[in-house]
Design goal:
By secondary structure, the chain is an all-alpha fold. It contains 7 helices and no strands. Helix 3 runs parallel beside helix 6 (about 110-135). The longest helix has about 35 residues, at about 140-174.
Length: about 170
């Protein structure tokens, strides 16, 4: 979140609100259109599958990144914070009120919790890898169990968050 806040501050200082971010791929007109949009159930299911696939991929990168000393985990968390800031900047540029941005992001705060939880799992796993590499200390059963339960909890949070993002937030927008 520090990178997210820093990105917003830098954008305001450099007047970058005129630029379009790389992360904005769906326009309001596409969301509202009956022809190929998400106004129908099939369209919502396709969007749900895409969002779920992306979010689970982020979580798996966070967890697996621990096996290479946490480098991928840290880079992934930083990149996601930067992308979130880009989306907020784009929404501000389009004239969306801050109160609406906050009301649309608030239901997804637990999605961030799932991403951060899997990021923490990746960093803890990195600690165990480093500990084993340099001191030959094998993690205990309790430590393995904690990693597995935390990973499953993070992914479960992400699945629920994707469902809410599509079937609650998109319905508010349409």
């Amino acid at each position: 979140m520090l990178l997210f806040s820093t990105r917003l501050i830098v954008a305001y200082r450099n007047h970058e609100l005129e630029k379009t971010p790389k992360t904005a791929t769906i326009t309001w007109a596409q969301l509202r259109s009956n022809n190929g949009g998400v106004n129908n159930k099939k369209g919502l299911n396709i969007v749900f599958a895409k969002i779920l696939k992306n979010n689970v991929k982020v979580c798996l990168i966070n967890i697996a990144g621990g096996s290479i000393f946490g480098v991928c985990t840290v880079v992934n968390l930083a990149a996601n914070g930067y992308n979130l800031a880009d989306v907020v900047i784009y929404a501000l540029k389009q004239g969306m009120p801050q109160s609406m941005i906050i009301s649309l992001l608030a239901p997804h705060s637990f999605e961030l919790l799932g991403i951060w939880l899997t990021g923490a799992v990746g960093l803890i796993l990195a600690k165990y890898v480093i500990r084993y590499a340099f001191k030959s200390i094998i993690p205990s059963y309790f430590e393995f169990r904690t990693i597995i339960y935390s990973s499953l909890a993070g992914i479960a949070i992400i699945v629920l968050a994707a469902w809410i993002e599509v079937y609650v937030t998109f319905n508010r927008l349409l």
